[in-house]
Specification:
The two termini are 30 Å apart. It is built from nine helices and three strands; from the N terminus they run αααααβββαααα. The chain has a single domain, classed as minor pseudopilin epsh fold (3-Layer(bab) Sandwich). The longest helix is centred in the N-terminal third of the chain and has 23 residues. 53% of the residues lie in helices and 9% in strands. The chain is mainly α and 227 residues long.
């Protein structure tokens, strides 16, 4: 299948002043587009040409893995940002309190992990197969779906995500990430995952252009197969 560039779910200038239009033009239009285009070139006339993005991530190595995983990670990141203020759902908020003590304690721990990620990478809020929340970091292109964790929220800490606006001040970028964090998106995934476990026959996601939909649909298929 040919992988396509996910359009931003907001205008290029919608996240300013926290993330500038110039940053998004480069990050989305150059870096992200480059991963998509390179992936399509690499999989041409190979077994991966017929695979979904999630299947490709799970079964590939080297350049194909790097570009497929970066395509997924970036598509996910765009949806983790919102120009309007959002809040965690009651269900997700309660789980955050159980795991970290409070929402503020979670934010502090997440920011510390993101700032401390050495070199290029990502900071994630994930949920495991027992519905427990965790903070993870991953280097370069690595992603939680390699290890059967479901991502809920991510912050891109590659320098190209923030250097135009913040130079080397990653901590300041993290401070402002919380202004933009799309808790509605994270909450929807968390609740969809619970729906899969309680009613695996119900399709929870039907958007072919959304990489996390593909992942959730795959989980639903696995749940159905195991019952």
């Amino acid at each position: 299948m040919k992988h396509t560039l996910m359009e931003l779910p907001y205008a290029m200038d919608a996240l300013a002043p926290y993330i500038s239009e110039e940053t998004l033009q480069y990050h989305h239009g150059k870096h992200y587009a480059g991963y998509i285009n390179k992936l399509n070139d690499l999989i041409k006339n190979t077994e991966y040409e017929e695979m979904s993005l999630e299947q490709t991530i799970r079964q590939s190595i080297g350049a194909i893995f790097n570009n497929a995983a970066q395509a997924f990670n970036h598509g996910f990141y765009w949806q983790c940002l919102s120009p309007t203020k959002t809040e965690p759902s009651a269900l997700l908020l309660n789980s955050l309190k159980e795991a970290f003590g409070s929402l503020e304690a979670f934010k502090e721990a997440f920011s510390k992990a993101a700032i401390g990620q050495f070199g290029s990478g990502w900071a994630w809020l994930v949920v495991d197969e027992q519905e427990k929340l965790h903070i993870q970091t991953s280097s370069n292109a690595h992603t939680p779906i390699e290890h059967n964790f479901t991502p809920l929220l991510v912050c891109d800490v590659w320098e190209h995500a923030y250097y135009i606006d913040y130079r080397n001040e990653r901590a300041k970028y993290l401070d402002n990430f919380w202004v933009l964090a799309n808790w509605k998106f994270a909450s929807n995934i968390f609740e969809d995952k619970k729906l899969i476990r309680s009613s695996p026959s119900i399709p929870v996601c039907n958007d072919p252009d959304d990489p996390i939909c593909e992942y959730l649909d795959g989980m639903a298929h696995l749940e159905t197969s195991s019952t």
